[in-house]
Prior knowledge:
Helix 6 links the parallel strand 5 and strand 6 (189-193). The protein has two domains: 41-280, Alpha/Beta hydrolase fold, catalytic domain (Rossmann fold), CATH 3.40.50.1820; 285-343. By secondary structure, it is α/β, with parallel strands linked by helices. The protein is 50% helix and 15% strand. It has an eight-stranded mixed sheet, sandwiched between helices. The model is unreliable at 1-25 (pLDDT under 50). It has helices spanning 2-26, 45-52, 55-67, 116-122, 138-156, 171-182, 208-217, 229-244, 265-275, 283-309, 313-327, 334-343, and strands at 29-34, 84-88, 97-103, 124-129, 159-169, 189-193, 219-225, 250-255.
Amino acid sequence: xxxxxxxxxxxxxxxxxxxxxxxxxxxxxxxxxxxxxxxxxxxxxxxxxxxxxxxxxxxxxxxxxxxxxxxxxxxxxxxxxxxxxxxxxxxxxxxxxxxxxxxxxxxxxxxxxxxxxxxxxxxxxxxxxxxxxxxxxxxxxxxxxxxxxxxxxxxxxxxxxxxxxxxxxxxxxxxxxxxxxxxxxxxxxxxxxxxxxxxxxxxxxxxxxxxxxxxxxxxxxxxxxxxxxxxxxxxxxxxxxxxxxxxxxxxxxxxxxxxxxxxxxxxxxxxxxxxxxxxxxxxxxxxxxxxxxxxxxxxxxxxxxxxxxxxxxxxxxxxxxxxxxxxxxxxxxxxxxxxxxxxxxx
Length: 346
């Protein structure tokens, strides 16, 4: 009896398996005009400000909104109006897909065709948003669009959370580094194709817990053309800033005979392979670097407090602004408390 029951059930299950396989194929490959529906707390205005804006600037933005009686929207993006391009390899790795969220310098949502063979071989999903180029506002569009793209792809496909990366080209690469620094609990690697900035100068430092996580768990791969002298110099300054901020898991990939242009397929493949090789920093080296960093910050905050105690408001305000630009979230909450004391605002 059991044999007679088993045979029809297996035959019934076969169409279901075929249907599932067909559905997987239908949701893979090159997909354009993709829409997403799920919002993420990561992309809320409050979280964007906490992670990506220096504390004193975030305080000023809120004060300006309060003074103008303007309510900051909870989510800066209306997903119904946004479109994305997506490439999904047909065959997923056993551990799940890797994911590369790509921030472009151009306004179109496009997947570079020459990247597709590398994405297939390595099992990497690539997603990119429309209207997220260099002309778009960074905080209101480029940052949240990348975060929402990651959230929605991870909800639709089986993605290995340890292999979620953020990348970009040229101006989009600078946004990618900013997001990697602010969201190390989401992105575990940054692929910087011909574009970078110096942390603590052009990119605000996030709160301490996020900075520590970035130091310990994020790998940064620079990928720039050998004939792109301007961006090679920018990369050098950026890498120096990473070292000063105790970030040591860094790789520098050069593309010989290449100017300021998008990486080719083989260069992308090497960079993606490098991203997957995380090299933890020796604990003693990291602890020593952090101690030096904290000591320098404490000295400057003590100096600002001394200026306030002596009633030297102008120099104190200028020093606090310098501390905010340099140390960002690492200086909070003390920097914010001193600024509020200086302005008489609780």
